[in-house]
Predict the structure.
Amino acid sequence: MQTQDRSSCRRLFAWPVFAVLILPGTSSLWSAEDGASEKAPPPAAEPTEDTVFDAPQIQAMQTSLLLRFLQLAQAKKLAEAEDLLTRAVQERRLDNAANRYNLACAQAVQGKTEAALASLAAAVERGWANAEHLRKDADLESLRALPRFEELAQAAAEQAQQAKPTPPVQAAVKDGVALVSDANTNWFPQVQQFLVLHQFPPADPNQPITTLSGPVGDLLRQWHKEGTAAGLHGFLYDNHDRDHSNMDFGRFPGLTRVEYAEPAKKRGFDHGLQQLFLHNAPTIGNSSTALVAGPLWSSQSRIALRQARTANVLAQQYLNNHLYFYPEHRDHDADGFGDVYHANTPYTITSQGSSGSDRAFLHAVACTLAAFRPDTQRLLIEKKLLMPTVQMVFRRSRKPVAGPDDYLTGKAHPTVFGEETLDVEKMVRAAHDLKPDEIPPLVLLRVVEEDTARAGVDYFEAGDADKVNTDKVNTDKVNTHKVNTHKVNVEKVFDTVSAIARVARATRWQRRMLVSAENSRDPNNRPLVYHWRLLRGDPERVQIKPLDPQGTQAELLVAWHERRPIEPGSALLSSRVDIGVFAHNGAHYSAPAFISWYFPANERRTYDDARRIAAVEYRPASQPESYADPALLTPASWRDVYQYDPQGQLLGWTRTRDGATEAFTRDGALVLKRDEQGRASEARTVRYVREQQSSGQWPVLRQEPGPERLTYTYQSDTHQLGEISARQPAEPLSPAQSPAE
């Protein structure tokens, strides 16, 4: 059986890659205005002939199909698996080598020799070329002695020798336009991104560097005349809102505009969050759009940070000389919901305001890119440090940043930037002064250690508490230690090269992380010294402990934070803690790297003197004062009060909602019966379900009975901590088994 193919080419095979793919045009993306505005079109009807732009949709179809096939195969439901693939290959888009091969496997295991050979022949005909896998696959054991099998294996081997990858094609830039078309676009399924190849004509020596008036334009023209400003030849401008908020690219004659061919437009790939395209040239771009309807309303930059895949897309853009600009719209307003971003990154620039607020930043960065000296710009592009360097120049040159000390504070690194803080002349001077041997380093982060949370005990979320978490489990009347650990870190939003984001789901007072920056690099191999700084949060609740003289690693201890001003005296509130990491190479600081912790503002937590959780009240997450992003947390509507024994060990908690009270054991099971001492003797597991009546309504967390009934025993009459002594399937709740108060 074939489960994965990690090749990359332009042919439209349906690659079985396990990933969630978000396609533009599948949600309501609106331009970031308060009134009526343009809406992204729905996906077009399936064309009769595919282009490379159909590859993401085909991959998503193939992934869904393969997952279902594997579920059936692992459950030994081979007839159903065969039927699934038989129906699938009748569809043009799913009639590929991988599905034909898996169909042959399902048929061979069932002893359907002739059908299996026919499917295997069809797989080879459609491009199957892995003869070694074919000859070793245990699913095809029943075919191996047949002459026809060896003929097919030989045909696959010959096909592999003859197969040649489609060479990349660079499309010529014409009349200042770089077209994204089927001819010059390649799909890479393993990273779910397109690579677009362009070929630029020779630079015109008579072309002005800019037509901007004023001091900045004068400086650029002077430097260009002297040969010390590189200009923007070979740079791309990628507008992703269908010219709704174009930058004034005419002021930068060397800049080339990106345009999309009709097949890409029909898929909505030219609108909204730019999450699919990488170009073989430095690129700046923008999309002055936002998702303005429904509970998932959000700026594009916040949308991108909700999932690990799209956060990694932003990181890849950053490390491939791309930088995109988006307005915050409603995500960063003192008179609204406050700063609702759950993470901070250096990967984009988000502007304060709605449509059009991003243009000033595009112009400022375009001037900065043009101001680099030719040898500096060339090295930045080669080392893929162009945008990290731009971020450093941009942040240190803003008006609120008076000097190096301010650069290491939150003043320089807010989530969102206001146009009034721009100092473009300072930016271009800083860029022009940068020498090749002084290029700033790049901070790369890695989580070495961190504590984890127990589902159904430390936090409650849909799908995470189907099993009771317990330290001791007895299934055969003998007490045995069995730790129910969860390898998946449910608090992790993403780990990317220069930004880490977590959601503080667990009720414990303090979170610990050990983070390393040892993989950071300097283009000139200068020695690096690291600076770890609290940029946002309560200094009394955050401890940063560098573990070596250079600060290569640090232990971070972050305690619970209530919603608070982003800085003393500010009217803007936030539920996030930011820790910044900076490397200094003796000449310059790097762009920042970030570790962010997002604390749910809808949870009003009380801790006792020993810093143990005493109570949690879950408030409405849709209100400005208690907003919590429903894409990250499912809002609950109850109050939990926790109990401990004299030694401080958790006994359980009581939950109050709608006037009724329920009791839970320390493992998160619902108490059904108690013994004479009032201790839980019988309980039932519970699970949590995310419920949403419609896309326009907020989701809610619903508690429902789980699949098991538990019996507890105690070591003595006075012992308070029970151990699970028996498990059995639970029957429907009856009045006699109703939850104990």
Residues 652 and 666 are 4 Å apart (CA to CA). The mean pLDDT is 89.
